[in-house]
Amino acid sequence: TLPMVNEKDAQPMALGYVADTNKADGKKFPKHAATQKCGNCTLYTGKPDAPSGPCGIFPGKAVASGGWCSAYTKKA
Ligand code: SF4
Fold it and tell me: Is 72 a pocket residue for ligand 1 (Cβ < 6 Å)?
C-alpha cells in the first residue's frame, strides 16, 4: 500500500489538497464543488470504491478517494 499524501507537505499545500473535499478552500478555489473528489477525477487511478488510490500528480503516494486538489479534472 502506498503512503498517504500529507496535506501539510509543500506540493499538496500548493495545490490546495485536502483529504476531505468538503474542507477545500472555497474562497481560494471558487470553482470547487463538493461533488468534485479524487474518486471521480481523471488523474485518479485507484478503484472507484476504494478509500484511497494513486494519483498522477503525486507519484508513489495515495490520495483519499474523497479528497480534492486544485488540479481536479472531472473524469469523462
Ligand atoms: Fe485528487 Fe485529482 Fe487532485 Fe489527484 S489531481 S489529488 S485525484 S483531485
Answer: yes
Identify the CATH number of the domain in which residue 60 sits. Answer: 4.10.490.10
Ligand 1 center from residue 55 Cα (angstroms): 6
Which ipTM score applies to this complex? Answer: 0.99
The separation between the first and the last C-alpha atoms of the chain, rounded to the nearest angstrom, is 27
The C-alpha atoms of residue 41 and residue 11 are separated, in whole angstroms, by 18
Q: Which atom of ligand 1 is nearest to the CA of 67?
A: 1
Per-residue pLDDT reduced to its tens digit, 31-66: 999 999 999 999 999 997 899 999 999 999 999 999
Number of domains in the chain: 1
